[in-house]
């Protein structure tokens, strides 16, 4: 029997590429859908059977009865937020407990991790990362320090382990003089979340996935955040705390590199970033405001304004290299419908020096642009590539040539029907 493959579907710039819209095109092709990194800092808006859901920790294959969904070992999970997310899906009639397995090795986000997240951000002052406040950084730090609690811990003597870790956190917070908080209510919901979590199959998901692959089944690894937020390769320290790149699929699910098949890289026809950190293409003028307004660029988790700018080929090429992207998916092309000229950042410049390679320190670099003619046409009604205006075809060819990667899907609007396969 032919062994199955793990395909990866990844946001390859700063996240928020609108992956939620294409996952339902993808999920029917797979037997298993798995999350390999991140936690409730993610927010994928999915419209399924006319209803809108925001998935944070739960994989997008959850709507399909026949699919196994996995929250892998590379993820972090907040039981209270997980329970709230799951209850909403259960109320809509989806039977989660038969479809969702959670790795015993995934780490738990405690209420005090969230307080620590806030305390560390406050202590950083103007250098703050602008985190989502979900406790992501402190939980992954604790994983690396080997002091964290894992999902498997709830199966044995949990209250004692919880109390010990909470006491440690309270001591750190007291040392930081960060004492003005009350987690009584939050902690109650969190403990209820732990009880709820116990009702799910808590398993060795790496073994399950590998058995599925041996049996010829195909797995979709669903990314979160984006490559430029990767802990190693992103704009450190303005990054998230996990491996968001394709390599994270291997460590975050326990699959070997030779099991990886296609790598789908999702990007937007322009750039956005939420949170602090270098962003050479950022526009501070009305063009930036217009992109934000037309593209509804406001954070899914925090509601913050997203910073907007033109497409950044330096970042895109870097991400394609790091992830081994085999196919590109361009989202939100219609947001650029009204512009006479569309700019593309082809290099960064600082002190008279230009680079097309992502620099170690992206701070202080300015974008160098090439201008392309806009299409000035409403794309939203188009149903096939043949209807695309010449300027859009040129924009697509330009990106494909620069990146040496095919763009196989172009999205021209928020609706599922507005997804053009090439
Ligand atoms: P954290 O992941 O909450 O620690 O936040 C670290 C940085 O990553 C901040 O700039 C966040 O805005 C950003 N971030 C985290 N998750 C996402 C996401 O799903 N989409 C976009 N940005 C994110």
Mind explaining what this structure looks like?
With 422 residues, the protein is of the alpha/beta class. Helix content is 30%, strand content 21%. The strands form 5 sheets. It has a 10-stranded mixed sheet, sandwiched between helices. Strands 14, 16, 17 and 18 form a 4-stranded mixed sheet that branches. It has a two-stranded antiparallel ribbon with strand order 3-4. Helix 2 (79-91) packs across helix 6 and helix 3 (111-124) crosses helix 4 (136-145). The chain is globular. It starts with 5 loop residues before the first strand and ends with a strand. Inosinic acid is lined by residues 14-16, 41-42, 129-132, 134, 136-137, 224-225, 229, 240-241, 274-275.
Number of strands: 20
What percentage of the residues does DSSP assign to strands (E)? Answer: 15-25%
Query: Which kinds of small molecule does this entry bind, naming each only once?
Result: inosinic acid
Rg, rounded, reads 21 Å
Structural class: alpha/beta
What does the main sheet amount to?
Answer: 10 strands, mixed
Q: What's the overall geometry?
A: globular
Which residues form runs of ≥5 with pLDDT under 50?
A: none
């Amino acid at each position: 029997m032919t062994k199955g493959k793990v395909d990866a579907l990844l946001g390859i710039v700063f996240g928020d590429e609108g992956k939620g819209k294409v996952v339902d095109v993808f999920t029917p092709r797979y037997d298993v859908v798995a999350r390999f990194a991140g936690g409730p800092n993610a927010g994928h808006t999915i419209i399924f059977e006319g209803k809108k859901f925001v998935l944070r920790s739960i994989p997008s294959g959850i709507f399909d009865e026949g699919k196994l969904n996995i929250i892998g070992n590379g993820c972090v999970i907040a039981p209270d937020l997980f329970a709230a997310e799951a209850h909403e899906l259960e109320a809509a009639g989806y039977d989660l407990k038969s479809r969702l397995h959670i790795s015993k090795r995934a780490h738990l986000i405690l209420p005090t991790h969230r307080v620590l997240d806030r305390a560390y951000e406050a202590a950083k002052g103007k250098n703050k990362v602008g985190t989502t406040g979900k406790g992501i950084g402190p939980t992954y730090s604790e994983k690396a320090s080997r002091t964290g609690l894992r999902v498997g811990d709830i199966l044995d003597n949990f209250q004692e382990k919880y109390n010990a870790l909470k006491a440690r956190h309270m001591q750190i917070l007291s040392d930081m003089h960060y004492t003005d908080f009350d987690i009584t209510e939050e902690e109650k919901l969190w403990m209820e979340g732990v009880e709820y979590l116990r009702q799910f199959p808590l398993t060795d998901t790496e073994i399950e996935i590998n058995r599925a692959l041996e049996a010829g089944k195909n797995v979709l690894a669903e990314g979160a955040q984006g490559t430029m937020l990767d802990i190693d390769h992103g704009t450190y320290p303005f990054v998230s705390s996990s491996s968001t790149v394709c390599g994270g699929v291997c460590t975050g699910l326990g699959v070997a590199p030779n099991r990886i098949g296609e790598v789908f890289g999702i990007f937007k026809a322009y750039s956005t970033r939420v949170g602090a950190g270098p962003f050479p293409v950022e526009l501070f003028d009305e063009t930036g405001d217009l992109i934000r307004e037309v593209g509804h660029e406001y954070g899914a988790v925090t509601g913050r304004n997203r910073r907007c700018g033109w497409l950044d080929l330096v970042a895109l090429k870097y991400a394609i290299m790091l992830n081994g992207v085999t196919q590109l998916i361009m989202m939100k092309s219609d947001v650029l419908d009204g512009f006479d000229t569309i700019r593309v950042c082809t290099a960064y410049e600082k002190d008279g020096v230009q680079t097309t390679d992502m620099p170690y320190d992206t701070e202080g670099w300015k974008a160098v642009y090439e201008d392309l003619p806009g299409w000035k046409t409403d794309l939203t009604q188009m149903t096939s590539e043949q209807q695309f205006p010449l300027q859009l075809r040129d924009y697509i060819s330009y990106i494909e040539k620069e990146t040496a990667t095919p763009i196989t899907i172009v999205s021209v609007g928020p609706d599922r029907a507005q997804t053009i396969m090439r």
